[in-house]
Amino acid sequence: MPYLNAVCCETLRIYPVVLIVSPREAKKTITIMGQEYPVGTALTPCIYLTHHREDLYPEPEKFKPERFLERQYSAYEFLPFGGTNRRCIGAAFAMFEMKLVLATILRHYNLALADKQPVKPVRRGVTLAPAGGVKMVMTGKRMQVETKSPSVATV
Ligand code: HEM
């Protein structure tokens, strides 16, 4: 399960579904990385650019789920669901659903990519998606390992 979580996080890092968060307005003058933004400035943090920063994610173009096992990223470094008080309300549900679907499919079937060509991401409005979907073929069924359920004492 920790590796499944890491795979989901790395997928959301390298190709965040939502590229930018909703715009924020500076209520007071703020300075970010040496750049001053006066009151009223509309700021639109870019999830994609943050997730591709080399100083945070060495070799950012490489799919490496292990990074999420090796260190804990802060809410300012890893933000596929945005942040602060407007953070995605469905974040926990989306992560749970993602892992449940993947674990259920992979428990029963072996899959392989139907096409060996790299999957290209395309922008659709503020979202990112695979250009032509990700076609897969089922190469076999997984053997189910029988586990004996512990005997339950009836009262
Ligand atoms: C992988 C799936 C999803 C991703 C990557 C995602 C990402 C995001 C992002 C980046 C925002 C903007 C947050 C911000 O501005 O700081 C957002 C807002 C929102 N999301 Fe999601 N979302 C996902 C799934 C869902 C689901 C399943 C639901 C509902 C069940 C949902 C409901 C919402 C709502 C209502 C907002 C607006 C929150 C607000 O403005 O207060 N999202 N989401």
Q: What is the strand content?
A: 15-25%
Top-tier CATH class: Mainly Alpha
> What is the CATH architecture descriptor?
Orthogonal Bundle
SS element count, helices:
4
Number of strands: 8
Structural class by sheet pairing and helices:
alpha+beta
Distance between the termini: 35 Å
Average pLDDT for all residues: 92
Along the chain, the helix and strand elements come as: HEEEEHHHEEEE
Strand order, largest beta sheet = 1-4
Largest sheet: 2 strands, antiparallel
At the fold tier of CATH, the topology name is: Cytochrome p450
Weakly predicted, low-confidence segments = none
- Overall shape: it is elongated
Oligomer designation: single chain
Please explain how this structure is put together.
The chain is an alpha+beta fold and 155 residues long. It has helices at 2-14, 47-51, 67-70, 91-108; strands spanning 24-25, 30-32, 35-37, 42-43, 109-113, 121-124, 127-130, 136-141. The chain is elongated and about 60 Å long. The mean pLDDT is 92. Protoporphyrin IX containing FE is lined by residues 17-18, 21-22, 80-83, 86-90, 93-94.
Question: What's the short story on this structure?
Answer:
It contains four helices and eight strands. The protein has 155 residues and is an alpha+beta fold.
Key descriptive features of the protein:
26% helix, two-stranded antiparallel ribbon, alpha+beta, 8 strands, two-stranded antiparallel sheet, binds protoporphyrin IX containing FE, 4 helices, 155 residues, Cytochrome p450, single chain
